[in-house]
């Protein structure tokens, strides 16, 4: 199968990565930040799969499974913390949690 | 017995340590026993050693206690060297020192700093003994610095009064200038001759250096600088009158008998060097002559009893320098010995006047004390007679020898010395007549106790009869050329004997009988200015003030916020600025942190790809 | 997998077992002391299990993990530190309200992640270990969940750590795409076979460095450090500062040596820039801080910079000396940091965290032993002789000088000078007269375990400072095995 060239696949994953990154930096809502983080991690997962298919190994897909699992765990903890922050600060604005500075 | 030489400077040092560590807990009695006793033991040892030395044909004896430092091929031992010269100095320091210590036990008995006083005195005596016994230049320098320290501590003894501290600092700084010159001289000698041991150094110098060459002239001149500072000769003499701020026994010990004579000792000790540099030796004589005149004139118009004696000391040491300069080495040392006796006597007697007379220093407020304090009066008489070199006193023999030797060298120098002797006669008897004769202005508070009286008696005896001591200094010094022609001998010697007597008569006319009045004399315009000029020590204090002190203080004030400090302050300021800038990056906002991470990643990728 | 390999994995298996045991203990009976005891026992067992694993080394267990002598030594170090932190945690949390037993559980899982990390030889194990460690730390940092500061610290840590993990993964993906290898030695072969430097691989490695740089709090990835250190509870901060950083650094070292990335000069330039910035930036930022935990955070940035200097020297000198220098420094750094934060944790009460410098004023008069310990730790951080920190810094200088890194050494000197100011400032504040005390911290009752731990740490510090030979010889023998 001629398939899609590796470079394009990697490029796609890079674009997704950058989009996720922009999302993390630009969005102020904590939930949106966590979602963008998820996008970033999945973009890297895509990169792994593309690379794995290039070399014809299953390793890429295994890595993707690992990435997925751990991203889920991370975001799970993140959502728990977001909940507590909402209880405490009554807002989900990421900029409002900045008591510590300097 | 000779082997105990090392103990002589050590015992006063031990006394110092005991008094420093435990002085506050000890009773007055014990303190005085420790303080005076340590010097007494040293004096006793010195006497016994002296007997053995004299018995042994006065062979120079070297005693090495231990090694101080050894670097490469330079070895500096704690070595003591005993010959007739150091023997003489030993007697002076321990003997007169002991008497002064006993006197101090009485003089200082009401002072709260009793233990501190004796501690410092012991330290001083120990350092002075190290100085005179040292067999190498480094140890001598140690003693030299030690006596400087002791002098500073003792001048500023009553430290509550700021002027005393100022006087102490002045003394220290001025002698420091001389000390620096001396240190340079020591360095020069060491680098050229590669040894610091005095005897070998001198013999090496004599064999290697030609008379009048640059090296001996330079080193002798530098050593002269040190001697001038310590002995308060021109131009470094202005500290001594101010040093009278210290307690009177201090003035007696340090500024009459011992420390100020250290310069004379130095030149005598290193005399081969001076023989190799005739120009410098001449300079010694000239300095001595000028100083004795300047100081004598200044003493003439002073009103403070101790300042008179201080200027007198400067003047008498000028005589010693004059003797050294004309090659009369033994005469100089002899005069040093007799001067120690009568000047100490004078100072101690002055001390008893001061302490028993409401702590008054101005002689014109005293009067008629002859009947109220007879012992003091006779001490003063004997001391002044010796000072003026009236016949048959000890001072007569020594000064006479000096003046005759001066004549043989140069009649000009002799004339200056003669004038000085005249002036000495005038001011010493002026002092006596004003203080002890005339009407008594106030009553005496108290009489001096036996602690103060007995040393006066002993010193008076020495001042009178000390001239008979024949110290065999010929073993150390080259014998002076013979006394010259007989008839010149007679005329010159008659004039020499007569001049102090003439001075005495002048003093009688002015101050005893009131035939002439000094008051009227000095009221006249020129005489008045002259009087002011003499009173201020020939204006040298003012000269130094404008020339050196003022500019230095101005520069220091300008540099108040130290320029060099600016570097460190600048660094601190810079770093603080950096901190503030960096702190501003910690905004506390998580998105900002994320952004910086991204920029950082881009940054390092750029570095990685571009390099 | 045969029995030998299982034996080699024994320490890791034991820690996992301990975590499960604690979970069960919590389920059976919720008691802080019980949970702590089980955890402590588990850690001790794991250390004993190291003895089982030792004969098997070097053991390549599956493609993922390489348990050689060095990995086992580092595991031992991490476990001991974990035990010390557990001790501090016990005293800190025992009087606090709320259910704190899960803390112990998370501590064990974090230790698990760290131990996997130092033994990894494959990207998968790398990522797994790192994430296990990180996620446990997110929850640990936010532990007193009802307070503002720990929450803030935790969320910041989470978001930024997520971003850095993403960078890390992207880097790994790029390398995988070019080389087809996920194992370190495979990558090493690939790089060795390349005639010219592969830009993509270089980019990938740099991205990995960016990701690891976050964990190591190197400039410019350091911004989270002071906030998280200040917000998290003191014993947890100790854990983050030591185990988390140390494990990641050891991994970085092994990665570089295994893949032979030292050959890439651009990488060394990148590291040099990062090191210089970290040393100077860390010290400058710490200079006028009034919160002790923040100050220690910034100083840890600087210390990682110092460590990097020795690391960079590996480009010009034999790996043996580099490993020796790095390992000794890490050991000294572990002891010092655990001690320093231990003091902070002893001084903290359930009501207030002993962060502000007001807590330390006059400490010498109130609690002289504690103040003495803290002084010792600060002096070691400053690199004063007689402490292990001095020997560590000496190692840094030696490797830097051998590697001719003069600019970096100058930065180390400047940084040490700056550091002295703020370390000594704390000592001065501690010796100030008690009347000027702003806050009198209530004397916490019987922090016995913490005190004992602090005593042991102080003794170790001085021992290693005066007689480092034992430790050095151990390190030398284990570092030979690193390929």
Descriptive overview:
The complex is a heterotrimer of chains A (about 100), B (about 600) and C (about 475). With about 100 residues, chain A is mainly α. Chain A is about 75% helix and about 0% strand. Chain A is elongated. Chain B is mainly alpha-helical and about 600 residues long. Helix content of chain B is about 75%, strand content about 5%. A two-stranded antiparallel ribbon of chain B has the order 1-2. The model of chain B has no long low-confidence stretch (mean pLDDT about 85). Chain C contains 20 helices and two strands.
Biggest interface and residues each: A-C, 50 and 42 residues
Can you tell me the residue ranges of chain A where pLDDT is under 50 for at least 5 consecutive residues? none
Question: N-to-C terminal Cα separation of chain B, in Å?
Answer: 85 Å
Give the overall form of chain A: elongated
What general outline of chain B do the C-alpha atoms trace?
globular
Sequence of strands across the biggest β-sheet of chain B: 1-2
Order of helices and strands of chain A: HHH
Multimeric organization: heterotrimer
Number of E strands of chain B? 2
Total beta strands of chain A = 0
* SSE ordering of chain B: HHEEHHHHHHHHHHHHHHHHHHHHHHHH
Percent of residues in helices of chain A comes to over 70%
Mean pLDDT of chain B: 86
What can be said about this structure in brief?
The complex is a heterotrimer of chains A (102), B (611) and C (483). Chain A is 76% helix and 0% strand. Chain A is built from 3 helices and no strands.
């Amino acid at each position: 199968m001629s398939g899609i060239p590796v470079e394009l696949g990697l490029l796609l994953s890079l674009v997704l990565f950058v989009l996720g990154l922009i999302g993390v930096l630009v969005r102020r809502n904590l939930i949106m930040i966590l979602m963008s983080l998820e996008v970033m991690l999945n973009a890297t997962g895509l990169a792994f799969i593309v690379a794995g298919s290039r070399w014809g190994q299953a390793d890429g897909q295994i890595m993707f499974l690992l990435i997925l699992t751990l991203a889920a765990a991370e975001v799970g903890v993140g959502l728990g913390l977001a909940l507590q922050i909402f209880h405490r600060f009554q807002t989900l604005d990421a900029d409002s949690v900045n008591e510590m500075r300097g | 017995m000779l082997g105990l030489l090392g103990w002589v400077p050590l015992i006063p040092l031990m006394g110092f340590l005991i008094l420093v560590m435990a002085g506050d807990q000890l009773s007055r009695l014990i303190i005085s026993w420790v303080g005076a006793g340590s010097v007494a033991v040293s004096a006793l040892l010195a006497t016994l050693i002296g007997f053995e030395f004299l018995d042994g044909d006065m062979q120079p004896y070297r005693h090495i206690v231990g090694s101080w430092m050894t670097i490469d091929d330079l070895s500096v031992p704690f070595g003591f060297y005993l010959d007739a010269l150091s023997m003489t100095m030993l007697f002076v320091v321990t003997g007169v020192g002991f008497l002064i210590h006993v006197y101090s036990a009485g003089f200082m008995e009401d002072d709260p700093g009793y233990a501190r006083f004796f501690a410092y005195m012991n330290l001083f005596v120990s350092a002075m003994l190290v100085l005179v016994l040292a067999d190498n230049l480094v140890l001598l320098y140690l003693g030299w610095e030690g006596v400087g320290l002791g002098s500073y501590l003792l001048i500023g003894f009553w430290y509550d009064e700021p002027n005393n501290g100022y006087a102490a600092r002045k003394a220290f700084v001025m002698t420091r200038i001389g000390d620096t010159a001396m240190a340079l001289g020591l360095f020069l000698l060491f680098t050229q001759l590669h040894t610091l041991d005095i005897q070998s150094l001198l013999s090496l110098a004599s064999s290697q250096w030609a008379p009048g060459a640059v090296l001996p002239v330079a080193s002798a001149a530098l050593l002269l600088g040190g001697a001038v500072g310590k002995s308060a000769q021109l131009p470094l003499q202005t500290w001594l009158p101010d040093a009278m701020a210290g307690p009177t026994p201090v003035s007696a010990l340090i500024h009459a008998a011992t420390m100020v004579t250290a310069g004379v000792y130095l030149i005598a000790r290193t005399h081969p060097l001076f023989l190799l540099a005739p120009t410098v030796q001449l300079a010694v004589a000239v300095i001595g002559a000028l100083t004795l005149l300047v100081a004598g004139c200044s003493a003439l118009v002073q009103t403070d009893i101790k300042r008179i004696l201080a200027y007198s000391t400067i003047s008498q040491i000028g005589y010693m320098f004059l003797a050294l300069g004309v090659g009369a080495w033994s005469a100089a040392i002899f005069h040093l010995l007799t001067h120690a006796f009568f000047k100490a006597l004078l100072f101690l007697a002055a001390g008893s006047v001061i302490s028993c007379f409401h702590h008054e220093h101005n002689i014109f407020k005293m009067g008629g004390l002859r009947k109220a304090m007879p012992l003091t009066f006779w001490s003063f008489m004997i001391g002044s007679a010796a000072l003026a070199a009236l016949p048959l006193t000890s001072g007569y023999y020594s000064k006479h020898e000096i003046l005759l030797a001066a004549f043989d060298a140069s009649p000009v120098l002799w004339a200056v010395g003669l004038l000085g002797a005249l002036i000495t006669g005038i001011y010493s008897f002026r002092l006596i007549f004003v203080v002890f004769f005339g009407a008594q202005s106030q009553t005496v508070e108290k009489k001096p106790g036996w602690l103060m009286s007995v040393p006066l008696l002993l010193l008076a005896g020495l001042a009178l009869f000390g001239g008979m001591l024949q110290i065999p200094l010929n073993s150390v010094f080259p014998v002076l050329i013979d006394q010259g022609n007989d008839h010149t001998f007679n005329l010159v010697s008659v004039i020499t004997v007569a001049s102090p007597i003439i001075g005495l008569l002048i003093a009688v006319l002015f101050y005893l009988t009131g035939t002439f009045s000094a008051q009227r004399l000095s009221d006249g315009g020129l005489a008045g200015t002259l009087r002011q000029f003499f009173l201020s020590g020939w204006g040298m204090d003012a000269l130094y003030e404008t020339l050196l002190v003022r500019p230095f203080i101005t520069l220091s004030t300008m540099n108040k916020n130290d320029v060099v400090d600016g570097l460190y302050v600048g660094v601190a300021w810079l770093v603080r600025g950096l901190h503030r800038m960096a702190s501003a990056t910690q905004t506390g906002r998580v998105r900002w942190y994320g952004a910086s991470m991204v920029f950082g990643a881009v940054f390092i990728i750029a570095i990685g790809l571009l390099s | 997998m045969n029995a030998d390999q299982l034996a080699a994995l024994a320490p890791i298996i034991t820690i996992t077992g301990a975590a499960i045991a604690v979970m069960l203990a919590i389920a059976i009976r919720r008691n802080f002391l019980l949970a702590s005891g089980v955890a402590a026992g588990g850690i001790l067992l794991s250390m004993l299990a190291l003895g089982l694993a030792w004969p098997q080394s070097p053991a390549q267990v599956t493609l993922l993990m390489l348990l050689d002598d060095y990995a086992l030594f580092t595991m031992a170090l991490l476990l001991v530190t974990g035990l010390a932190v557990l001790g501090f945690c016990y005293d800190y949390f025992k009087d606090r309200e709320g259910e704190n037993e899960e803390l112990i559980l998370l501590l064990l899982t974090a230790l698990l992640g760290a131990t996997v990390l130092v033994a990894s030889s494959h990207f998968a194990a790398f990522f797994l270990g790192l994430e296990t460690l990180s996620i446990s730390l997110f929850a640990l940092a936010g532990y007193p969940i009802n307070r503002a500061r720990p929450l803030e610290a935790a969320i910041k840590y989470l978001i930024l750590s997520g971003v850095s993990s993403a960078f890390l993964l992207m880097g790994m993906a790029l390398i995988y795409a070019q080389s087809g290898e996920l194992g370190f030695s495979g990558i090493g072969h690939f790089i060795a076979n390349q005639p010219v430097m592969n830009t993509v691989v270089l980019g990938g490695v740099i991205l990995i460095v960016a990701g690891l740089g976050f964990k190591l709090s190197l400039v410019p990835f350091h911004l989270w450090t002071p906030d998280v250190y200040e917000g998290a509870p003191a014993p947890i901060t100790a854990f983050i500062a030591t185990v988390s950083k140390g494990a990641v650094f050891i991994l970085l070292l092994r990665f570089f040596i295994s893949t032979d990335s030292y050959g890439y000069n651009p990488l060394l330039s990148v590291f040099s820039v990062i090191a210089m910035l970290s040393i100077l930036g860390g010290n400058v930022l710490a200079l006028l801080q009034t919160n002790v935990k923040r100050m220690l955070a910034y100083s840890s940035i600087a210390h990682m910079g110092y460590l990097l200097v020795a690391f960079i020297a590996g480009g010009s000198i034999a790996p043996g000396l580099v490993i020796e220098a790095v390992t000794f420094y890490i050991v000294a750094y572990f002891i010092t940091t655990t001690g320093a934060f231990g003091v902070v944790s002893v001084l903290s009460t359930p009501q207030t965290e002993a962060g502000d410098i007001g807590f330390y004023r006059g400490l010498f008069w109130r609690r002289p032993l504690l103040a003495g310990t803290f002084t010792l730790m600060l002096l070691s951080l400053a690199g004063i002789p007689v402490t292990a920190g001095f020997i560590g810094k000496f190692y840094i200088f030696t490797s830097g000088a051998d590697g001719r890194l003069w600019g970096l050494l100058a930065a180390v000197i400047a940084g040490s000078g700056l550091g002295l100011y703020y370390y000594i400032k704390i000592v001065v504040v501690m010796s100030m007269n008690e009347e000027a005390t702003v806050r009198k911290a209530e004397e916490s009752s019987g922090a016995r375990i913490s005190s004992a731990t602090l005593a042991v740490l102080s003794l170790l510090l001085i021992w290693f400072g005066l007689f480092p030979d034992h430790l050095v010889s151990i390190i030398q023998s284990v570092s030979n095995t690193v390929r």
